[in-house]
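hey so i finally got around to running the thing on that chain from the lab meeting. sorry it took forever, my laptop kept dying and i had to restart like 3 times. anyway pasting the input first so we r on the same page abt which one it is
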Amino acid sequence: MPSLKSYLIVIAFACAFHVALAQQDPIASQYHLNPAMINPAYSGLYNSFMINANSRLQWMGMEGSPFSNYLTVTSSLVAQRIGGGVLISQDNLGITSTTEMAVMRAYRIESGATTFAFGLQGGMVNIKHKQNNLTLRYPDDPDFLPNTQSVMKPNFGAGISIMGESYYIGLSVPRLMDVKFEDGITDNVLYNRHYYASASFIKDITPFMKLKPVAFIRYVDGAPLSYDIGANILWNHKFWFGAYTRNLTTQGALFQLIVNQIVRLGYAVEVPTTKNIETRFISHEVVIGIDLSLFSDQEAFLRYF
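ok and heres what got predicted. didnt touch it at all, straight out
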C-alpha cells in the first residue's frame, strides 16, 4: 500500500485545485501578459516577434508539488494578417509528468481600432506515470508495479481574441481532445478538456500611472468553476505590480520590470489560505519576455495585453 504521506499529498492536490484528478493543465499567475500560453489566437496579435518563458514552482517545500515550465515563441506574418508560433510546455505533479509541443496559427482581422483574431493549434501531448517513484509499504504490491506508464496522443486547440485600444478579451479551448490511457482492461481519463475566458482593460489614472483590472475563468468538464480576479498598476511605463486572488482561497502579488520596452522580467508569489494547504507552502513564478522587431514590418513597443 502507498504510504500515508502519499495519500495526504494526493488529497491536498485534489482539494486545492477544486477539480477532478484528471485535470492536467498547470496553473499560472501571469496569463494576462502572455495569453499565448492558453490561446493560439494571441499568436501574431501584435506586429512583433515575442519570446516568453514561464517557470512556476507550486507549494514549495511539499513533496511532489507541481513544477511547470512554458515557452512560447510567436510572431506576426504575411503582411500582418497571419500569426504563428510554437508552444512547448512541461509539467510535473507527483509521479505524473506531462509534456506538450504544439504549433499555433492565427488569422487577424482589423476593424477600426478593434482587432479580431481566430487561432488554431495542433501538436502532441505525452503523459507519463512513474510508479517506480512511489514510496510503498509493500514493494511487491501488484496494484503498484514499479514501471512507467506512458501515452502520447495528438491534440488540437482553438481560440479567439478581441483587442481594442483599452481592452482585451480571450476565449479558448487549447486542447479539445480528452486523453485516455487504455491498457486493454480499463480506460483511464488522464486529461479532461479545459475552457478558458479572460478579460482585462487599461485605464489612465495619472500621466505616470495606469490601472489594469483582470479577470480569468477556467472550467474543466466535470469540475467546479475556477477564477482569478485582480488589479495591476503600470507605473512610469517601467513597472507592473499588482495583487490577485484565486477562488478566494489563494492570495498573490506580482511584479514586472520593463527594460527599454523590449525585455520584461517578472515574479509572482502566492500564499494559500485554504485549510487544505498550509500557508507555509508558498508558490513562486518567474517570467522572462522579449519583444523584438525581427522583420522589417514589425515594431517592438510597450504593450498592455
